[in-house]
Design brief:
The chain has 230 residues and is mostly helical. The chain contains 10 helices and 2 strands, in the order H-H-H-E-E-H-H-H-H-H-H-H. This is FadR family transcriptional regulator.
């Protein structure tokens, strides 16, 4: 039996709101119902609906005017813009993934040689938390990111850490639900544990191999997510 995939309420609300706009034939300048009415229509809380609205505003499908209401932007332009934006974001993530393979892959190998007991303890803590959070179907993104940061530190190479730091703004997207999908990289979960074991066993070749599997799945997740976006 496969585990039930975690879907955030605001993701569902954003999709429903987009469908509502398109199915109702709303055009640029048309006003949407107020927040309270949208919450009632879709049976979601105010915080989830606000997050859904912020997401659609970031995609330039709607405009929120303080004190006046929520307005539709040009839907046809949005469709074209969104497609271009998704493709650009996909390309950026895949390019950063290539850099991660090179730079983070080197960190992984060095960590297998140089990780201190303190580094191993930090990785073990992160993996334990990931397991606990998965069991209760909670967000693992931040502890996942912390696990990778522990590997960078364990490499014992401040120059590599500096290189990663210089591109962190781009790398951070991997832990921020790209394309609004919470489970986009869920298939990588088990390989974090095999990667941790390889580092703990001081096996750099195995560590690099496990890391490459993670990156293969990351790139496949990006391809799958964008293929589902119309």
């Amino acid at each position: 039996m496969k585990p039930v995939k975690r879907v955030l309420v605001h993701e569902l609300a954003a999709k429903e709101l987009q469908s509502y706009i398109e199915n109702a034939g709303l055009k640029e300048g048309d006003k949407l119902p107020p927040l309270e009415e949208l919450c009632e229509m879709m049976q979601v809380g105010r915080s989830s609906m606000r997050e859904a609205l912020r997401y659609l505003e970031a995609l330039e499908m709607i405009e929120i005017v303080n004190g006046k209401g929520i307005y539709v932007r040009d839907v046809e332009t949005y469709r074209l813009f969104a497609k271009v934006k998704v493709e650009d974001f996909k390309t950026m993530l895949l390019h950063v993934s290539e850099v991660r393979r090179a730079v983070e892959g080197q960190c992984v190998e060095l960590a297998a040689f140089r990780a201190t007991p303190e580094d191993i303890a930090e990785m073990d803590y992160c993996l334990g938390e990931m397991k606990r959070l998965k069991a209760i179907n909670a967000d693992k993104s931040q502890i996942d990111m912390r696990f990778h940061q522990a590997i960078y530190k364990a490499s014992g190479n401040p120059v590599l850490e500096s290189v990663i730091g210089s591109m962190w703004e781009m790398m951070e997207h991997f832990w921020q639900y790209p394309f609004g999908k919470a489970d986009i990289f869920e298939d990588t979960y088990e390989y974090h544990f095999t990667l941790g074991e390889a580092i703990k066993s001081k096996d750099p070749a195995k560590a690099r191999a496990e890391f490459n599997i993670i990156m293969d799945l990351v790139e496949q997740g990006i391809q799958n997510a964008t293929a589902q976006i119309k």
